[in-house]
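Our preliminary data section would be incomplete without showing what the modeling component actually yields. Below, a chain of 138 amino acids is followed by its predicted structure, encoded as C-alpha cells that our downstream tools consume directly.
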Amino acid sequence: MSNPNDYNAKNIEEFRRRGGQVGGNFEGRPLILLTTTGAKSGRSHTTPAMYRKDGDRIVIFASKGGAPTSPDWYHNLVANPTVTVEVGTETFKAKASVATGKERDDLFALQAQEYPQFGEYQQKTTRKIPVVLLERIA
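Predicted structure:
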C-alpha cells in the first residue's frame, strides 16, 4: 500500500479483530497499538508499533524506518505523555517517558540484536533514534 495511513488502518483493524495478531510484515512480531493525543490538533491518533518488554514496562522505538525525522507519534507523546496502549486483547493507560544515556543505549542494542532492522534504521539516519518507556498508570 502506498499510503502509510491505509497500511496502518489495515493493521489496526486486523490487530483488533484478531486479538493482537497481524499478518504481513508484522506477522509473529510483538506489536502494540499506541494511541497518542496530537501535539497540535489535540485529536487521538492510533499507530501500530513493535515493542519489547522490560519488566513491567513496554519499550517502543521511534525509528520511522531510519527516516531523518522522528515519527509523529513521538512528537505527540512528548507533548502529551499520557497514552493508551493496546497489547493483545488488553487496553490500558500509560505514561510515556524517553529513555536516556546507558538505559536508552542498552534497550536499543537489545532490540537491534533481536530485530536487526533496527540497527539498520539507526545506520540510515544521523539522529539518535529515541527509545520510549511506557509505564502503566494504576
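The CA atoms of residues 72 and 109 lie 23 Å apart. The two ends are 38 Å apart (CA to CA). Preliminary results of this kind motivate Aim 1 of the renewal.
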